């Protein structure tokens, strides 16, 4: 069996497993599969695996760093809908805008302002997620939860970005159930933000859940899950 055929068979097996687990989590929480957008995280895989992911119908792809994503974005372009899911340095905004359809990691006013400025120059408004460090881990980026409302007030007038929702990363836990309070906390923050009507329109999306804990995230209201190793693997 040639290498590509083997990679495709392994990918098919991962897809079947992931889709079954998504469906089961939806069933447990009274949701439908259509409510869940999978962002296939391709940061650790080759362009050949990106090609395979696209061929299998995974069109929304997530990358963490422009330097690593550049070759893939330039090769596949509009075949994919690119989401920037990593920590974004202010000086890299110029590289990301116009190439990535969504930014999941807005966590400081300097970044929001730069996105707004560059987006207005391009005549676009960029869908963004506000990243919140619900767990409080020092190793994680994101706003402290108690600063979310003030931050929303600060960025409300920035027309170059459109807040689609909130994003968080839970700690890696041997028992995924331990992540539930983090995901529940983000959902509660979204609901509180909407109740206060701080932004021009309600935010609906929750980008939360990764390979280790996506089922719990779905049960707690995730609308986007970011899946790398469990779906596309770690190298190819």
Q: If classified by CATH, what would the architecture be? A: Alpha-Beta Barrel
Number of discrete domains: 1
Q: Output the CATH topology.
A: TIM Barrel
Could you give the distance between the termini? 16 Å
CATH class descriptor name? Alpha Beta
> Average pLDDT across residues?
95
Rg over CA atoms, rounded to whole Å, is 18 Å
Largest sheet, spatial ordering of strands: 7-6-5-4-3-2-1-8
What structural class do helix, strand and pairing data support?
alpha/beta
Shape, principal axes of CA atoms: globular
Helix content: 40-55%
Helix and strand run: HEHEHEHEHEHEHEHE
Structure description:
This protein has 236 residues and is of the alpha/beta class. It has one domain: TIM Barrel. 40% of the residues lie in helices and 16% in strands. It contains eight helices and eight strands; from the N terminus they run αβαβαβαβαβαβαβαβ. The chain has an eight-stranded parallel sheet with strand order 7-6-5-4-3-2-1-8. The chain is globular and about 55 Å long. The two termini are 16 Å apart. The model has no long low-confidence stretch (mean pLDDT 95).
Kindly list the characteristics that best describe this protein.
single chain; 236 residues; 8 helices; globular
SSE diagram, text form:
Layout: H1 3-28, E1 37-41, H2 47-55, E2 60-63, H3 66-76, E3 81-84, H4 93-96, E4 102-106, H5 109-122, E5 126-131, H6 148-155, E6 161-167, H7 180-196, E7 205-207, H8 214-219, E8 224-227
Parallel strand pairs: 1-2, 1-8, 2-3, 3-4, 4-5, 5-6, 6-7
């Amino acid at each position: 069996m040639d290498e590509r055929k083997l990679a495709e068979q392994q990918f098919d097996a991962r897809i079947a497993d992931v889709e079954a687990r998504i469906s089961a989590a939806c069933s447990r929480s009274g949701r439908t599969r259509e409510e869940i957008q999978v962002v296939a995280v391709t940061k650790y895989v080759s362009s050949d695996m990106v090609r395979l992911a696209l061929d299998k119908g995974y069109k929304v792809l997530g990358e963490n760093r422009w330097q690593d994503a550049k070759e893939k974005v330039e090769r596949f372009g509009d075949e994919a809908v690119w989401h920037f899911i990593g920590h974004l340095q202010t000086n890299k905004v110029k590289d990301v805008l116009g190439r990535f359809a969504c930014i999941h990691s807005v966590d400081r006013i300097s970044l929001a302002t730069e996105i707004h400025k560059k987006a207005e120059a391009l005549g676009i408004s960029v869908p963004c997620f506000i990243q919140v460090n619900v767990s409080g881990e020092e190793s994680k980026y994101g706003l402290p939860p108690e600063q979310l409302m003030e931050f929303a007030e600060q960025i409300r007038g920035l027309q170059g970005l459109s807040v689609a929702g909130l994003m968080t990363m839970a700690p890696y836990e041997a028992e995924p159930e331990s992540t539930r309070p983090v995901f529940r906390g983000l959902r509660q923050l979204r609901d509180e933000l909407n109740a206060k009507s701080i932004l021009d329109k309600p935010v609906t999306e929750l980008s939360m859940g990764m390979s280790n804990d996506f089922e719990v995230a779905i049960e707690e209201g995730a609308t986007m899950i970011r899946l790398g190793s469990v779906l596309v693997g770690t190298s190819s």
